[in-house]
Amino acid sequence: MATNNPVIQLFDNPTQRKDPVACDSCSLYSLCLPLGLNNHDLQKLDQIIDREQRYQRNDRLFRADTPFTALFVVRSGTFKTTVAASNGREQITGFYFPGEFIGLDAIYTENYQSTATALETSTLCALPFTRLQTLGADIPQLQINMLRRSSKELASDKNLMILLSKNNADARLATFLLSLSARFQERGFSTTRFRLSMPRKDIANHLGLAVETISRLFARFQQQGLIDVAGKSITLVDLPNLQARCEH
Amino acid sequence: MATNNPVIQLFDNPTQRKDPVACDSCSLYSLCLPLGLNNHDLQKLDQIIDREQRYQRNDRLFRADTPFTALFVVRSGTFKTTVAASNGREQITGFYFPGEFIGLDAIYTENYQSTATALETSTLCALPFTRLQTLGADIPQLQINMLRRSSKELASDKNLMILLSKNNADARLATFLLSLSARFQERGFSTTRFRLSMPRKDIANHLGLAVETISRLFARFQQQGLIDVAGKSITLVDLPNLQARCEH
DNA sequence: CGCGCGTTTGACATGACTCAAATGCTGTGG
DNA sequence: CCACAGCATTTGAGTCATGTCAAACGCGCG
């Protein structure tokens, strides 16, 4: 039973947190914007960051088509971004874990392109964009880091496009699970055992599938010995064969 | 017959071109990197640009997984970028028209993430990236423009993701045609009458559909009075109803 | 403890794919 | 200039994966 299993605690529980730490002692430092900045520049960056951002499940961070004021970096928890398709339905364009940037696609239009919502109790750092730009004029490395983050998201979106246009349901779910695994690894967590902070419905939506299909796939993957799911906790049992499923 | 119709000439014929013009007299200036730069900075940028890039149909600009050396801006013609899926199939991740940037997703990894191929005789400007970065340290506006271009592509990729994961074949093709129309409008060309520089096969691939489906859709859209196709030339006859097809 | 939502399971419908073959177009060499 | 080869496009028939609808189940929260 999921409730008996000691599920690895992925993220800080914000209610137990101390005051948010400055960049130089943040565990996400190596994934984040300050990487490679000297002490002097880092201090200047530190001063413009708002670390007091805290959100509960279903709280909205920003709405699509509202003015772009800040970039956000997740510190703990999970967010999703959604875009309303014209027919009223919604598409989840991304899930965001600690160290990941939300809002990069708003820089061009100067309006947020999606609505960002917390999937659980979460915290983040807000980077006011005009101040970031001002700072960037003096700190080239900062601009480079932003461009690199944007480039990284661009590359991973291209992969998602391929997934959605070329692959069947098996491959989509397998790829999704392995992508989570890889992202957790970057953050020093287990690659094989983690908690799915999003409901099945959201996974289905993100992968362009029906909830029922996701449910059936979880059941079949488990039966085939690829994974072990119980509610929100999941263990990737057979990584090589899961990898094999990512094709077609 | 397509051959009798005077199809609007979208792009310069490179064989008739004069020497490539400098940025300040380039017709793509307002869409491109120099936008907002002062004369002095523009001159410095001008000096690092290689304008002698010319490619024939099927020529490769770069291959995936080779070192990232330069960003490219299309000056005339069309390019496509493809990624090889692990099972050997290819996915076309984008088409690129004059004024559009190729290679932005390579900045993070420092390797090209896709293979870029000319769809017809085409020319482009090459921007050596290390020199661009050096220049960027002195010209903040240049960095901002790059970030903005990257952000723009990010936003349009998110839209494509939605298209691929949520929409049926009708909506995919309608959206694709209207997206071409909008991009041609930005460049001062007709929004309703243009040439499809890519073969059906490539449209199908890009939209995650079979060639046969595209062919049937063109036939049906024409029968329904939405469009008028003859070979590579197409007229969008009923924009409002085409727009309506973009849903579902 | 009970309600409600998230999840699972089953039966059936259908849109798009695959395979197959005809037709049309383009570029090339005689 | 014409004929031909090869590729692109169109059209048809049948299959299958995934969606839709419906209903049962069970976990978690109040």
Summarize the structure.
2 copies of one chain form a homodimer. With 248 residues, the first copy, chain A, is an alpha+beta fold. The first copy, chain A, is 38% helix and 21% strand.
Question: Characteristics of this structure?
Answer:
homodimer; 248 residues; alpha+beta; Jelly Rolls; Arc Repressor Mutant, subunit A; four-stranded antiparallel beta sheet; 7 helices; 11 strands; 38% helix; 21% strand; globular; disordered N terminus; DNA-binding
Number of helical segments of chain A? 7
Reported CATH architecture of the largest domain in chain A: Sandwich
Run of helices and strands of chain A: HEEEEEEEEHHHEHHEEH
How many DSSP E strands of chain A? 11
> Biggest sheet of chain A, open or closed, and with what strands and sense?
4 strands, antiparallel
- The CATH topology of the largest domain in chain A, please? Jelly Rolls
Overall average pLDDT of chain A: 90
What integer value in Å does the Rg of chain A equal?
19 Å
Low-confidence stretches of chain A: 1-17
Could you tell me which chain pair has the largest interface and how many residues each side has?
A-B, 47 and 47 residues
Give the termini distance of chain A in whole angstroms.
33 Å
